[in-house]
Amino acid sequence: TFSIRKPVILTQHYEFTADETALQISIKLADNKGTPAGIKSVICYWYNTVDFQRKSTNMIPSPSTGGAGGGYELEQPLPLPRGGQSIKYQIKINDTEGNFVETEMETVTAPLGPNLAIAQDSQSLAPQIFYIFSQMTLSAKLENNGGKPLKTNVSVYFFDGNPDVNGDAIIDENAQILGYAILKPEDWQPGTE
To answer: Which helix (H) or strand (E) holds 7?
Structure first.
């Protein structure tokens, strides 16, 4: 027969809640006395990079399985700090025999929101804007690097020269438009430009 003396962390996972205001963390464990019977406590120790106050949240057997299969999740999801800030967390597990294991410290950055940018070539860092003379086509590769999906249409314009000569972050009335495209939320695919 095979037995393990210390709890074993099989998997660890996190995801943002549907409204993107909190972080849910789950873990799957194995123990020689079984789960949840052999597990005394599973606690997530965490802090955010806004106030750096160390906090703890209990992890409970996953409600969908009652702990069968070793699944645990946070009793309450962790509130996310403002976009761009992070949550750092570590999970500590004690079993009923006095054995202790812990995860490495993990960092999760709260999504900023949609942030459209012109994609850059990974080697030259040049912006990915192209003009194809034979087809009279002007194109740009765009990416959403903000961590949240686009939920509204976005207009993308191409101009001849600098459209904001006076530098006031408003397009000048006399800026010459070469063309434009309207991007819809369904035009974006996760992990792609």
So the answer is: none
